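Two entries, shown back to back:
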Amino acid sequence: MKANAAIFYASDGYAPAVKGINGRRVAGESFLKGYLRHGAVEEFVILAKANSEAAEVETLVQALRPDKKLRPVGLARPGSIAPLTNLFYPAANIAGEAWRRADYGSDAWAVCGITHTTSTMGIMQGFFDLRMAPVMEWDAVICTSTAVQAAVSVQMDLIDAHVRQRFRAAPPPRPMFPVIPLGIHCDDFVPDPVARQSLRDRLGCGAEDVVFTTIARLTPHEKFDPLPIYLAMQAAQDGLKPGQKLHVVFCGLFRHAYAKTVFVEGAARLMPDVGFLLLDGALAEDRRAALSAADVFLFMIDNIQETFGLAPLEGMAAGLPLLVSDWDGMKDTVTPDVGFRVRTRMLGPHHLANEALRLQGGVDDYSQYCAAVSAMTEVDVRDMTRQILLFAQNPDLRRRMGQAAQAKARAVYDWAVVIPQFQELWGEQDAKRRAAGDAAVRIAGHALPIAPSPTLLFQGYPTETANFADARFVASDLTGRTGLRDLLALRNYQALNRHFATTDQIAAVLAVITARGANSTGVEVISGATRFQPMYVERVLIWLLKYDFIRHA
């Protein structure tokens, strides 16, 4: 059963051009465009914090699906996603969205998250928080590969074992953890013959030369160590016949000067006989040229920061065979018909327990943690060398695998194929939610254990708690005093971009009380006259009392 879902939208999760290029944002942007292109829906609904962010999505809708309406919903009123009963959140930790839902009841809608990097302290703590939050069995966190699903399962088992030991009780039912891959828009990666020839001329490629291309963030401590690649490339070059040359093209971004030094000096010293070129991953034309000029897509990841590997799909869509590490999502995507996977090895759990504790305790930062794990992760250089030679010496093999890769990309990983899997999952979640019976729970919004109302939490601070149920008010004599609007301008709540009520709303409440003259009035009368909810009227009343615009009768 296919279902629509409201999309939680914040620029940070979907806008790499604005917020900076990283895998999470690139994947988020690709998903959003894929959903707008291929979602089988009557309307698109987003849950967003700001009108400016809603406008970003509206621009995309007009460009990709102008026949469909976009309905924005504010974060303060998530129940307004109705009649939709699913919410997609672009990260793994859906605990916050479960708490946001709590006041409506845990069966009001189902929440669906998705994994990206799972190795940060924030995400690992987030998975623990998820087990403590009102996350239900009809909620889901999409795992983008079987490797990620296995990693999440390990942590869930550890958390649940702690719950049993600590609380001597059974842990709550887990959310769903289905495997659905990320996708791409295959048409974006059709190779450009002109760009191919231009870059190969720049490299000085001969007719039989072979170009291996990587598109990735160029950080040896958080993505991949290039030095084993250089060792394997030079060894393979030594095994080729005279006149044939290998070339390595890296297209990406450097975060630190240190990283660039590792890549550039490492290439010069470790593979002096192999061609080498760096391209700018921020430039679309460089990314297209890198794919177009390549003979093989290379993705030799040795880092736990990686979880899926979106770039190899782009290489597949460009018709390239793949040479990758046998690592995380590539175990799913790179099958023997489309490429080779190079053996990898890690040490046993007890070897790196200290690294985990150093991260948790703040002794090491995330980069240091990833670098330490990478340093003790082997990518088999001899195996890589053999497979480089196989590709270099067999153009028919490259062509056959490249054709199979391109066909597989369209058949399995194009968003046209992947988006229906998301919608089918949402339909399954909805069916589970509706069949839940009395399993649902509701927690009043003022009593969330992680964020109780401050006037509940700090009720012992004031002299008394205001009770306006039977209270009546009259306007104060404002002769010679600063008026309401001038005082609000002086106080300048807008400086923090947050106000408890607008100036016009406050003025409307004061006007009702002032119009009554000496006759006092209460909350119900004010509510009826302004059409504001009684609770909202009370928020304004206490402010008017604070600044002596009104007084108790």
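entry 2 starts here
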Amino acid sequence: MFKILVSDPLSEEGVKILKDVKEFQVDVITELKPEKLKEIIKDYQALIVRSATKVTKEIISAASGLKVIGRAGVGLDNVDLEAATQKGIIVMNTPAGNTISTAEHTVSMILALSRNIPQATASTKKGEWKRSKFMGVELYNKVLGIVGFGRIGTEVAKRALSFGMKILAYDPFLSREVAEGLGVEIVELNDLFGRSDYITVHTPLTEETRHLISTKEFAIMKPGVRVINCARGGIVDELALAEAIKQGKVAGAAMDVFEKEPVSPESELLKLDNVIVTPHLGASTEEAQVNVAIEVAEIVRDALLGHGIRNAANYPCLEAEVCKFLEPYINLCEKLGIFSGQLVEGRYLELNISYSGEITQYDLAPLTMALVKGVLSPIMQETVNFINAISLAKERGIKIKESKSSKEEEFVNLVQLEIKTDKETKRICGTLSPNKKPRIVKIGEYYIESAPLGDIIMVQNRDVPGIIGNLGTLLAKHNINIAAMTFGREKQGGDAISLFNVDSPISGEILEKIKKIENILTVKVIKI
């Protein structure tokens, strides 16, 4: 008998799926205090949550029998993924359940923004009849720029095309062939900003996408552009947006998400007549709630009954003995992918993966899953997991080639990843240290030994004296400690690379100062 705890409200359709299994005992107990959840969690094999329950390290530590955590929704901010992984608990989410709901809400916002529907409704209900005040614009023949062309972006495009709109898309993982097959033009980000009449964002919120649209980007846009955000608060700089609207550069905005929620009544955006807002309703449809409930119930049911793992956010399921050997390599591959995905520029075309050593005796599918997940994660965040990573890459036209090498390499076990984009090709190699920790050992032709952990500064520089001293002095002035460093060079006096693991995040301001150090050619900050 498996005991399942549902600790947040879940649609009855999902609960019924679980209760219909004779091997399950299902307890629906919502609004549990953390202390109470910690007390009772030891009795359960599965936990299903939405966003209210916080599955902390302390809760997981007390969960002696827990095998599965199911999240009815996309985000996993409320689950300590690392603690769950260390304890061998599979964490699964439902990344597809809200797709149609959010896409339809985005299109609704575009229409409402174009025809001033909320403003006209409020005016008419006050007894006014001001037709000329609410003159709108048509969508026909307008250009819609979609930033982030995953599942939701694709569904928005399909609906916008039916209105006769022209679609521009920016997504570093989307191939031109796939885009053209959908009737969409794939462009660089600044090109999208400069040509679009409407701009909608559908990316996760990361360090790279925070304030992706801000003052500089508004300056590129054509006058009269309209901006929509139904993705994550913080992708659009709200203060910069308000200023651009006041200046007349932006004709209007539609916002479902905000940097701080609930949004303050004092927000500058809420004071502007040509801004329409909703309280994070993207996934708030009856169908979406039912869809995620059914999906999370089905994946938890199948996992407990041994019918396969879907949407695993932490690691693929393996037989115990195989897992014991391969788990450190799964960790290596994920870290290698995350590291490599932040090194390259351009649109992804191919991932060529080569394995050598004793690992080639095993089924390498989990390693390839982990590596592809790692490559996609910096951009796609929680929407990509071990199970869907390869299919998401193929949906975007990225070719994945896997090979085993019997040739004796410089390392006992080696994973080589070659990433080809429309701008460059890079090869990065990784292996395990003697204590089974992941190490990056080669970037291009440079031999190094770097731990892919935390914040890393990667510098390409001329091999001359003083580089390390100048950089160390600069970081010290900003109270940033260097935890570890490694160097590689082709030849004495030529070009070299240096990698620094640091204890604190590197701000944009510090990054610009590093770039100005003499004999430094390029700088990248990599976050693992």
